[in-house]
């Protein structure tokens, strides 16, 4: 390297470590009288001599009583070195390999020391490739702490200049991390006795003024031993002293321990335990934590100001909300309360403080998390109970709602009323997968709902169950009241092993039992014909009272044995859409067969539509239910007739339907023979 000394160009051979610094643009200026004067006045390394700064830096050499001294100017930085200080500053260890900044650092030779990038704190050169290999004795670990770190930032993946740290002896080892930009509190621990660090800068034309880095390293066998992690299904988080992750193996369990357990832990440790349950399209788990031993001495004021164990149950670490812990434990008694995470994540942060203790031992269990409110079954199956004695009103939903429920699942919901009570269900959102959709009548029944479905039953004291209906697709069930005499309702959600959907969200309420006819309705058994009207017809029906969750009207029609009931809807307008969103606010259920599920009717009947139904026996039942969210529509008017089907007839026989009806029903302006047979209205005067 050429250097001017007292106006004469001298050739100075620098020590090996200082001969090359990439393609840094060095310029040299003659040691002028003005420069001598400035240096004599200000002293070396005290100020910036702007007239001596070149394109990137300027280097001057001058005589001193102890020999040559190198003066380097980097922008606003001025640094002075003698050959000896240069060597001790940048030579981290024994030079190794080709290049000026590749070093081997052995713990047996150098227990602690500094690691400094070339030309620090001046702008580091371009086109560098430096390496630092740290080799400790068996049982030792290496701690690397960067106290200043300033590299060019080219993005989160550091595509330009970077420091990369490997957890092992060379660059084939596992990577701890790649770092660039400005880093604060960057402290790295090796897992074992070796560590490998590279510092790479790219060749480029743009000028940067980043300082590089300065840090310290230490070899020690007193850093935390990691066997308390590796022997207990944990996974050490590379680069940390004692942090670990524990991943579920599907409803697995195990133990977590303080460092060095069962012996006293070391002081001034901070270890984090990330315990993660499964979370994917099929599985969702939560973590149950139960302490069997706790010995973390309290501080002088009897609190957790010295050592502590903080528990985070809501995934606070994902938002760096470490100040919002759910529990803080210390002392010598394990908390008898079992802790359960809200979601798949549980975090423990152990800080040992100044006073040593025996630490802790805790059992963790991963449980399937359905995210369903209610009393869960103790065996962990998807079964939930809702008792009137515990809560009169509440919500329930499909697993994980509003995200998709899992496939191959069967979930059961039990709603148990007390004596003289009924339970009401109202569905607010509903979407259950179905492939065989009938767009005209809605998605109800076993013929349509074959893949995934929701079934609802009345449950009786003798254990018998009677199905109300099977539902799927987007056709939400209408409001449901348990029958008088039933002890409650049961709902079953079934999914096959194929695709899934978002499921449902619904409400339940327990209320005083109504009469068998509900809020209105009647028992019709002493007539051969009549009409059924919705409340207030022809005006709009209204919603339930504010104190009610539903309003119902039940009609029971019974005719003579061997006869059947023919019902024809003349007017019909109930809020809802059977082929779309279903009948969630109001519904008319019609049982043509008392032993089978009823038909769910809502929507609006066009004037030209012909709606008629005939019973399978001599009984028919109708139930009109409105939920508290009903807005009120025109309702319905239906005419019913006792008919006898067969070839023989002692009264009036309809020409097309061949129904046998009473003579007095002829010419009454009602289609008693059916919507397609007007023979009973012919020849009328």
TrEMBL record:
| Keyword line | Disulfide bond
Q: What SMART domains does this protein map onto?
A: CUB, LDLa
Pinpoint the CUB domain residues: 101-220, 242-367, 382-511, 520-643
Could you tell me which CDD domains the record lists for this protein?
CUB (cd00041)
Gene3D superfamilies hit by this protein: Low-density Lipoprotein Receptor (4.10.400.10), Ribonuclease H-like superfamily/Ribonuclease H (3.30.420.10), Spermadhesin, CUB domain (2.60.120.290)
Q: What InterPro entries does its record include? A: CUB_dom, LDL_receptor-like_sf, LDrepeatLR_classA_rpt, Non-NMDA_GluR_Accessory, RNaseH_sf, Sperma_CUB_dom_sf
This protein's superkingdom? Eukaryota
GO MF, one example: nucleic acid binding
Name a GO CC annotation attached to this entry. plasma membrane
* Name the record gives this protein: CUB domain-containing protein
The organism encoding this protein is Dendroctonus ponderosae
Q: What is the lineage of its organism?
A: Eukaryota, Metazoa, Ecdysozoa, Arthropoda, Hexapoda
């Amino acid at each position: 390297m050429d250097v001017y000394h007292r106006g004469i160009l001298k050739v100075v051979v620098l020590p090996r470590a200082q001969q090359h610094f990439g393609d840094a643009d060095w310029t040299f200026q003659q040691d002028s009288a003005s420069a001598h004067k400035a240096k004599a006045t200000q002293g070396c390394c005290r100020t910036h001599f702007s007239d001596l700064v070149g394109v990137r830096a300027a280097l001057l050499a001058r005589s001193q009583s102890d020999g040559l001294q190198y003066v380097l100017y980097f922008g606003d930085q001025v640094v002075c070195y003698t050959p000896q200080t240069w060597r001790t500053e940048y030579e981290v260890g024994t030079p190794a390999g080709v290049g000026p900044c590749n070093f081997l650092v052995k713990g047996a030779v150098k227990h602690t020391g500094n690691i400094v990038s070339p030309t620090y704190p001046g702008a580091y050169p371009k086109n560098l490739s430096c390496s630092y290999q740290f080799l400790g004795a068996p049982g030792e670990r290496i701690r690397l702490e960067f106290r200043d770190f300033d590299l060019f930032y080219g993005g989160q993946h550091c595509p330009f200049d970077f420091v990369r740290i490997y957890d092992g002896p060379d660059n084939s080892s596992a990577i701890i991390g790649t770092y660039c930009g400005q880093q604060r509190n960057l402290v790295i621990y090796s897992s074992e006795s070796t560590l490998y660090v590279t510092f790479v800068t790219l060749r480029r034309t743009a000028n940067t003024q980043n300082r590089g880095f300065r840090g310290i390293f230490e070899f020690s066998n007193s850093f935390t031993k990691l066997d308390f992690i590796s022997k207990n299904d944990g996974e050490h988080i590379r680069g940390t002293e004692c942090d670990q992750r524990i991943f579920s193996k599907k409803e697995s369990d195990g133990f977590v321990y303080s460092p060095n357990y069962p012996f006293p832990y070391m002081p001034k440790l901070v270890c984090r335990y990330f315990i993660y349950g499964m979370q994917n399209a099929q599985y969702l788990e939560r973590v149950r934590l139960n302490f069997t031993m706790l010995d973390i001495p309290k501080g002088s004021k009897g609190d957790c100001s010295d050592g502590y164990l903080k528990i985070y149950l809501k995934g606070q670490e994902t938002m760096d909300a470490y100040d919002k812990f759910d529990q803080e434990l210390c002392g010598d008694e394990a908390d008898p309360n079992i802790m359960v995470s809200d979601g798949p994540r549980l975090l423990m942060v152990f800080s040992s403080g100044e006073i040593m203790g025996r630490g802790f031992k805790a059992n963790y269990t991963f449980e399937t998390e359905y995210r369903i409110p209610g009393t869960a079954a103790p065996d962990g199956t998807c079964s939930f109970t809702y008792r009137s004695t515990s809560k009169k009103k509440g919500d329930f939903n499909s697993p994980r709602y509003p995200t998709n429920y899992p496939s191959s699942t069967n979930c059961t919901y039990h709603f148990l009323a007390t004596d003289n009570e009924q339970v009401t269900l109202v569905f607010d959102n509903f979407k259950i997968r179905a492939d065989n959709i009938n767009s005209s009548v809605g998605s109800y029944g076993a013929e349509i709902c074959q893949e995934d479905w929701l079934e609802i039953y009345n449950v009786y004291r003798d254990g018998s169950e009677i199905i109300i209906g099977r539902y799927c697709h987007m056709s939400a069930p209408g409001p449901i009241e348990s029958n008088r005499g039933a002890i409650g309702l049961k709902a079953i959600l079934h999914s096959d092993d194929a695709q899934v959907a978002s499921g449902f969200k619904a409400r339940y309420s327990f209320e005083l039992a109504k009469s068998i006819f509900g809020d209105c309705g009647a028992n019709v058994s002493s007539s051969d014909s009549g009409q059924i009207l919705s409340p207030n017809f022809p005006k709009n029906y209204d919603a339930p009272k504010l104190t009610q969750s539903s309003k119902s009207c039940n009609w029971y029609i019974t005719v003579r044995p061997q006869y059947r009931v023919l019902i024809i809807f003349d007017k019909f307008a109930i809020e809802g859409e059977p082929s779309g969103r279903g009948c969630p606010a109001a519904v008319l259920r019609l049982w043509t067969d008392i032993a089978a599920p009823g038909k769910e009717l809502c929507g609006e009947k066009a004037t030209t539509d012909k709606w008629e139904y005939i019973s399978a026996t001599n009984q028919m039942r109708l139930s009109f239910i409105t939920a508290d969210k009903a807005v009120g529509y025109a309702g319905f008017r239906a005419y019913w007739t006792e008919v006898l089907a067969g070839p023989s007839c002692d009264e009036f026989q309809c020409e097309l339907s061949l129904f046998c009806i009473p003579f007095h029903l002829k010419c009454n302006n009602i289609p008693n023979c059916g919507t397609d047979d007007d023979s009973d209205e012919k020849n009328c005067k």
